[in-house]
Amino acid sequence: MNRLLLLEDDPNLSKTLIKYLKYNGYDVDWAKNGEEAMELTYENRYALYLFDINVPLISGVDLLTELRHADDFTPTIIISALVDIESVTKGFIAGADDYLKKPFDPEELLVRIKAKTAKLQSVTKFKSFEINNQTNEIHYNRELLDIGNVQKSILIALIKNHPNPVVKDELMHLLDKPTDVALRVNIAKLKKNLGVEIKSVRGVGYKIL
User: Fold this and answer.
1) Residue 17: C-alpha distances to residues 75, 154, 168 (Å)
2) What's the average model confidence in pLDDT over 177-192?
3) pLDDT tens digits, residue range 68-126?
4) E strands within the chain?
5) CA dist., res. 135 & res. 151, Å (int)
6) Which residues have CB under 8 Å from 173's CB, separation 6+?
């Protein structure tokens, strides 16, 4: 799947990028504002999102935040003229996988897209777990795993990041009410109910073993 969603309100930049990306083998849907982009995410599946921040109706960061809350973990690159550390930080907190500052060389964007999409597989396997990367369904011992959305999101993050730990702040963003106690409780439930080994990495976060 080489279909991308571009959220960008500059028509000249959008046309240039779409032409360049299509030449390099990608199909691109273009949204001129956040609401258009949101509708397209409901209707289609994409290999990757390219979101500008300052766009009409719904900002790229607000849209990405909503998508992550809806368990949409499609890889996302933010492209923005906002280069201050606060804007960059907000982008990553919202769930961005990468941040490219305008102006940029389209070839650099292509390299980053390839780096993100190359990691995509239809299924992620870990021990007795299989994660469908399109639907985020988890099979455990070949049976569909039925757990709450919070624990499911934590488990997916831990498995996809293996063998590296997931930083605590990232896990906190997956909680309905982020507290240290809530995080520890959800980790404990995963360990007890699934028999998985999850280790606390001091000063970093948690990793699955």
Assistant:
1) 18, 35, 36
2) 93
3) 888 788 889 999 888 788 888 888 888 888 888 888 888 888 888 888 776 655 678 88
4) 3-7, 27-31, 48-51, 76-80, 98-101, 123-126, 129-132, 138-140, 143-144, 166-167, 198-201, 205-208
5) 16
6) 68, 93, 95
CATH code 3.40.50.2300 for 3-117: yes
| Residue pLDDT, tens place only, 114-164 | 887 766 556 788 888 888 877 888 998 888 998 989 999 999 999 988 888
Supply 45's token pair.
């599946």
CA dist 93 and 75 (Å) reads: 14
CATH architecture of 123-208: Orthogonal Bundle (1.10)
The structural domains of the chain, with segments of one domain joined by +, span 3-117, 123-208
Q: CA 199, 204, 208: angle at the middle one, nearest 5?
A: 30
